[in-house]
Amino acid sequence: MKREKTNGKEKKKSHQFSVCRFTAGFGGQAFAGTDTEEEYEKKQEKLGERHQEYVYGVPDVPTTDWVMSSGGRLYDNWMNALDIEGPEVTHPSWPASNTKKQGATTWRCKTCHGWDYKGVNGKYASGSYKSGIGGVTHMHGTTPQNMVAILRDDIHRYTSDMLSDEHVLRIGMFISRGLHDTDAYIDRSSGKTIGVASRGARIFQNICATCHGFQGTKLDWGSDDEPAFVGTEANANPWEVLHKIRNGHPGHEMVAMRPFSLETSVDILTYIRTLPEK
After folding, report:
1. 3-state class of 13 per DSSP?
2. What sign for the dihedral angle of Cα 54, 57, 64, 86?
3. pLDDT 10s digits, 140-191
């Protein structure tokens, strides 16, 4: 369930898509104000359908950028990206030495290989996700088709009921062509980012603020005692936030900045780190 804070008050949303009630026009008509409740609800439903197409649909002619960002969301959490239930059992290849993670989360690509894609050679060398499993950076330059056999093998065990060949190919496109070297933009020890906050502000205030608000505090997925704003996450785990800036968040209508330069995403991340954490 999402938690949204507006004018100091908290709103809880149980529906799947967060939808703003605009006072501007929708299809040439006012979206609120002059609408009856019934008219407003119909327009909300129509907007929800549009969001659903963006979140779960596929373009008639998918561009390479779309395929890579979709693959990035599947890498993040394919269960949420496809709106399906994940396995209840822990992945057979998950090491018994790590008892902190179990069940469906162990079937996420990022759980083993990390937000920096380096696995045991990166940030997951320690912490609750420590598994001793390697990264995927060595797969850069391979063909997406190779990923079908890899993800179907006895190590990964993804059946076609979990991920279709099309979905596996998207993951393959992301891994073979869509990775970035996080060490070139984020200091591994401090998390400090190499970007220009003023450039990031221009983009955040005109695009990202649509959902997150100008201070980045409109969406709060934490608790009253420990809020989790976009600024909170960007300072705690800039590797994850950079991945989501580029590829979007699985299961939600977050804009993916994949078509723009990597430096643009790093600028946005750098600016976000200046926003309130609590």
Report:
1. strand
2. positive
3. 999 999 888 999 999 999 999 999 999 999 999 999 999 999 999 999 999 9
Tokens of 175: 């891994």
Using CA atoms, how far apart are residues 126 and 122, in angstroms rounded to an integer? 9
Residues 6+ apart with CB under 8 A from 277: 229, 231, 232, 235
- In sequence order, the 6+-apart residues with CB closer than 8 A to the CB of 169 are 67, 144, 145, 147, 148
List the single range of 50-54, 61-65, 116-120 with lowest mean pLDDT.
50-54
Report d(CA 170, CA 176) in Å as an integer. Answer: 10
Residue keyed to tokens 């993804």: 158
Tokens of 136: 């995927």
The mean pLDDT of 10-35, rounded to a whole number, is 38
Pairing status of strand 2-6 against strand 9-13? antiparallel
Q: Are 271 and 215 in contact (CB under 8 A)?
A: no
Domains of the chain by start residue, with CATH: 64-179 (no CATH), 197-272 (1.10.760)
> In the numeric block, which tokens belong to residue 263?
């430096």
For residues 152 and 158, what is the distance between their CA atoms, to the nearest angstrom?
A: 5
End-to-end CA distance of the chain: 19
User: Residue 16 pairs with which residues in a beta bridge?
Assistant: none
pLDDT in tens, 184-232: 999 999 999 999 999 999 999 999 999 999 999 999 999 988 999 999 9
Under the banding of pLDDT at 50, 70 and 90, the label for residue 51 is: confident
In sequence order, which residues have a C-beta less than 8 Å from that of residue 113 and are 6 or more positions away? 75, 119, 124, 133, 134, 135, 136
Q: What is the pLDDT of residue 34?
A: 57
Q: Cα(134)–Cα(256) distance, rounded to whole angstroms?
A: 27
